[in-house]
Amino acid sequence: MRWSYRLGTLFGFPIRMHMSLLIFLAFVLFSGGGLYGLILMLAVFGSVLLHELGHSVVARKLGLAIVDISLYPFGGMARMASAPKTSNDEIKVAAAGPVVSLLLAGGFALLGWLSASPLLAELARINLMLGVFNLLPALPMDGGRILRAYLAKRVGFYRATAQSARLARWLAGGLAVAGLVYSSWLLVLAIFLFVMALAEEGTAQARRFMGDPGYQDGPQAGRPVFDPFRRFSESMGFRPAGSRWEVFDPEQKPKGPSQADPGQRVYHDRNGNRVVIEWRD
Q1: Other CB atoms within 10 A of residue 105 CB
Q2: pLDDT (average), residues 100-106
Q3: Is the pLDDT of residue 140 over 80?
Q4: Residue 131 banded pLDDT, cuts 50, 70, 90
Q5: What's the CA gap between 255 and 185, in Å, rounded?
Q6: What distance in Å separates the CA atoms of residue 230 and residue 101, rounded to the nearest whole number?
Q7: Catalytic residue among 52, 90, 200, 201
Q8: 52 annotated active-site
Q9: CA distances (Å), origin 72, targets 18, 49, 205
Q10: Strands 13-18 and 66-72: what pairing?
Q11: Does pTM top 0.85 for this prediction?
């Protein structure tokens, strides 16, 4: 059974909707929200889509491919084919979404004041909350990615990930306590934040195991990593996302590695039977 459906393409980005979002909208319509509630939710998800488009447009300008933008009941996600190569690129991509949300909040506030529309005023409030919440310094929120990129310039990608994930877990604990007192939604959000912070840490550990240096401008980026599993996987034709290894056909003229990006290159013949590893210091 398919759980995600393509809605179309916007600015060249495929837009997908998860089935759970339709279930959520139906719940809003029939649980007392009525037509007004449904229109409000559709406008909110339109704002979330613009938030993710902010990430995607900046990522594309930096040369990062976007697989698609997916919408879920609790927000959206722009999936990148590869991670940002530098901490500055990460900061630019992460900051773009909250900037869009804050601009939308200002625009809806102005239109709501001019028209005295409660719907526009509510959209201004929601976009303000969306922008501010995403700036929380907790992975995987945008603010957490900005914090990690900032720390990575000093302590490296992996230590920065561990520190940012630890802060995210503390914030999740605070939200859980607030959820027990005020709202069960905060408790759900705390659980989500805690699990996603663990996932970010696990992903970083996997990237480290595969020999990925993380950001190229970090303190550890220039140090070669010799990992037997990584060398074996490369010899079998697999290229870990973000690694400095590439697979070429030896009969094609490869793009020479720059002095700023020393590393190893794996060459395959046309049949994929012979592998020649060239080491370059």
Answers
A1: 21
A2: 95
A3: yes
A4: very high
A5: 52
A6: 40
A7: 52
A8: yes
A9: 6, 10, 27
A10: parallel
A11: no
